[in-house]
Design a protein that fits this description.
about 70 residues; mainly alpha; 3 helices
């Protein structure tokens, strides 16, 4: 259980910005590129993302989910 409509309604813009600045960083980032493309994709990605900087991302502690067996 991760939240309900009341807890989601309490999320502020500052909460979202704090989350973004804490967890959305180039450290350990992954990218998947699917489909047709033109040009040198490695060069395109490098030129687009090479200046991306940020703090080392904090680990997110996800709640443990209990799975019920299939019936």
């Amino acid at each position: 259980y991760l939240g309900d409509s009341e807890s989601i309604a309490r999320i502020t813009q500052k909460d979202l910005l704090d989350y973004y600045q804490t967890y959305v960083t180039p450290a350990h980032a992954r990218m998947a590129i699917v489909g047709a493309y033109e040009g040198d994709i490695k060069e395109i990605v490098k030129n687009t993302l090479e200046d991306w900087s940020g703090n080392r991302a904090q680990l997110i502690q996800y709640p443990t989910l209990e799975l019920s067996p299939s019936q």
